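=== RUN LOG ===
request id: a7f3
mode: sequence -> structure
chains: 1
length: 537
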Amino acid sequence: MVQIKLKWGKEEFDVTIEEGTSVEIFKTQVWTLTSVPMERQKYTGFPGGMLKDSDDLMAKVAKLKPGSKIMLIGTAEGGELKMPVEKTVFEEDLTPEEKARILKEKKIEILPSGMKNLGNTCYMNSCVQVLNHLPDLREALESYNAPPAEGRDIDAVLTTQFKNVTQMLRSTTDCITPLQFVMALRQRFPRFAEMQGGGYMQQDADECMRGFLTVMSSTLKTDSGNKIDDLFSFEIKSSLKCLECDEEPKQESMEAQRVLLCHLGTQTEPVSHIHQGIALSMKEHVEKNSPVLGRNAQYEKHSMLSSLPTYLVVQFARFGYKGANEWAGTDASKVKLTRKCAFSQSFDAFDICSEELKKRLSMGRLKKKDQDDIALAKEREAFKAGKAGKGDSQSSTAKPEEKKDGDVEMKSAEAEDVEMKDALGLEELDTGYYELVGIISHKGRTADGGHYVSWAKHKKADGKDLKEDQWVLFDDEDTSFESWNRMTGAAIDLQGGRADTQIAYINIYRKITVKDAGNVLGTAAEETKPAVEAKAA
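=== RESULT ===
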C-alpha cells in the first residue's frame, strides 16, 4: 500500500494506492474525490511523462521520489465553460436534450428515454427506471446535495450519480449511457463487477434494488430518519409459539422491513394468487432451541403488518437453489420457479395487518366507500342528464358569460370545498388499499442468465381518450407504450406460467389514502344527498 500526494488546482489530496491497482481503478478513486470524469483526467509528475491507460501504475509509483506530487489537470462535472448566448439552430441540428425540452414546453407527449446496456446491466437499468417513476423518491433526489469532496464517501458518490442519471432521463429524447453510474455501483458493490468468460455476469435485480435502498437510506436524511424508510419501510409484528411445549410462553417481536415476500408454494401445494403467497410468507415453521425443553424444537411463527409504507415492494420468490446431483452429473445452481401467480392493478393489505392496524384502517375504508358511492351517484346523474336531450344538456352546460373588467369570478361550491379542504391540511387516512405503479420482470430459466425489463404506470384511464391504463416498457435502450390487457394477456402474461416470456419478479404498489374532512364542511351529512336522491330516482 502506497500513499501519494495529488494536487488539483488549489486543492491537495492524499490518495492511497493498494497493491495491484490499475490506472482505471486509480482514476475512479480520483473521480470520487474531485468529480473530474475519467476521460478528462490528465496527470503530470509520473516518471516517463503523461499517464496512459495502458501503463503499469505500480511500476510508475515505485519510481516516484519521496515527497513528490502528482498534478491533476481536468475540469469537474458542472464546471465547464458555457456560451454566453444560446446559438440558434435548425430543428435537424437540435440535440436530444434540446428536443426533449421543446417538446415538453409544447406539451407534446414523448416516450421516456432508455438506458444503454453496458454488459449485462439490464438488472440495474430496470431498477433505475422503475424507481425513477416514483415521484416522492425523485423529489428527494432532486433536493439532495452531495457533501464536499473531503467528506464524500462512495455512498454519496453513488447517490449523486443516481440523481444525475434520473435528470438525464428526463432531459433527453435519446437513450443515455450511464457509464460513471455503473462504475460507482460496481465500486460500492464488488459483487456486481464479477466476470465470467471475459464479460460481466448477470446479477439479481432484487439484490440491486435492495442495494440502492440501503445506499440512499444513508444519504437521503430527514428529520425522522431517512427518506427511504419514510417511503418503503414497514413494521412486522411476529409471534413465536413452541409446538412441542404448551408451557413455554409465546414470544413476540417487532422488526422493520422494506420488502414483502410472496412465496409460490410447492409442486404439490402451489400458490395461484399474490394474496395466497404473501399470506404463506407470513406463517412459517422454524426450528430453534427451546429454553424449557433444553433442546431444539419446532416453532410456528405468525407475522402481521403493524404499519403500512407509502410504497409497498413485493418480491415473488422466483429463484431458489437446486442442490448438486451426482447421479445426473449436475452442479448446484440457481433455478427459477415459473408457475403462474395472478395479481391485479390493485392490492388490499387489510387481511395481513395486525388487529390494531385493522381498527385504524376501518375508518379510512368506510370514508373511501362513501366517497366512491358519491362519485358513482354523480356519474349516474351526469349520464341521465346526457340522455335527457340536447336542449336540456346545452342549457345545463352552457358556458357562463365572460366577465367584464372589475367583475369577480365566481367558483362552484365543489371547487371552493376542495380548496378549503386543502387549505385546512386535513389528515390523510390509510385504507389498506394499494395501486400497482411499477414492475420488474425476468425472462429466462435461471437467475444467472436471462433478461430483465421494467414496467411503469404512465397514465391512468379517463374513460374517454384513454380507455385503459397506459404503461411504459423499459427494455434497456428501447421503450414503448403498453396496455394492461396486453401485459397480462397471452402475448406477454407477466403473471407467469412460461419461462420463455417475461414474468413479474418485483411489484411496487403505491398507498391509497383518503382525506378526513369530518364535519368541518358538512360533508358527513350533505355529501350523502346525491347518493340517496339517485337511489330514489
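=== NOTES ===
The first helix runs from residue 23 to 34.
The first strand starts at residue 2 and ends at 8.
=== END ===
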